[in-house]
């Protein structure tokens, strides 16, 4: 991987179809826009139709002639995930970017009864990937890129409390959901390889990028001091959303990306050009990854075993 890789190095994507979750703002918006700039047909999968449509209009103005469409997707509601997958209109899907997420909100519960960070950041994307797996596997050299975080090092998943509501601590819950993202990628890559598929499951993280992810929680709770502190930290320490999206774009489009790889900023996992990123060895634990996968199947009611056997 050479230094200085930029969005200009994204190859031509004409004829490719991509889905980007949480594409209405921040990293997701930049990722979707740059994929569209290179010719991909991009579905902006967002939970707010108004914000999604506004993002699409803004993107179309920035990239004239871009092929962009909106898809309603609320990862906190598995019925919405099912509806999105059932209405997916294409017979190919070259790229699924599992980008949307929550960061350290107060304790909340999804429509299906899960702690919101685990429910949205992991289970929602697990379900979406599982439901779209048939079309992904039918598309040569498709990729699934899941956005994790350097914060995954703080905590691993608690298989005895996947609900996450016992002694809830917002940052621990966030870290567990980001570890779950990496364990999911590890197990998906292993299962695809075991069945001889050419789907690449990879992970990326933005380092410290200035987006509304850091300020959304404090703002929603009315914690003005925390919101101001996050805003100030973003201004002083963070790289831009444009730079933060580069590891995802690299994992999604660069040649030679390996299954179960983890791409992040080169400089101390914090900022800089995309590079292989260190990850906790716990996120490559085969036993934990398998148990999390099996638990996720039970919790979502979505199994991929039959689909994988048909490769």
Write a structural description.
With 311 residues, the chain is of the alpha/beta class. It has one domain: NAD(P)-binding Rossmann-like Domain (Rossmann fold, 3-Layer(aba) Sandwich). It has 11 helices and 8 strands. The chain has helices at 26-37, 49-62, 78-86, 116-137, 170-194, 213-221, 224-237, 241-244, 246-253, 286-300, 305-309, and strands spanning 17-21, 41-46, 67-72, 95-98, 143-147, 200-204, 262-267, 271-276. It has an 8-stranded mixed beta sheet, sandwiched between helices. Strand 1, helix 1 and strand 2 form a beta-alpha-beta unit. Helix 4 (116-137) packs across helix 10 (286-300). The protein is globular, with a radius of gyration of 18 Å. It starts with 16 loop residues before the first strand and ends with a helix.
Strand arrangement in the largest pleated sheet:
3-2-1-4-5-6-7-8
The residue ranges in which pLDDT falls below 50 over 5 or more consecutive positions are 225-237
Binned strand content? 5-15%
- For the CA atoms, what is the radius of gyration? 18 Å
How many extended strands? 8
Q: Helical content, roughly?
A: 40-55%
Mean pLDDT: 90
Question: Which structural traits does this protein have?
Answer:
311 residues; alpha/beta; Rossmann fold
Q: Which secondary structure elements does this structure contain, and how are they paired or packed?
A:
Layout: E1 17-21, H1 26-37, E2 41-46, H2 49-62, E3 67-72, H3 78-86, E4 95-98, H4 116-137, E5 143-147, H5 170-194, E6 200-204, H6 213-221, H7 224-237, H8 241-244, H9 246-253, E7 262-267, E8 271-276, H10 286-300, H11 305-309
Parallel strand pairs: 1-2, 1-4, 2-3, 4-5, 5-6, 6-7
Antiparallel strand pairs: 7-8
Helix pairs in contact: 3-4, 4-5, 4-10, 5-10, 6-7
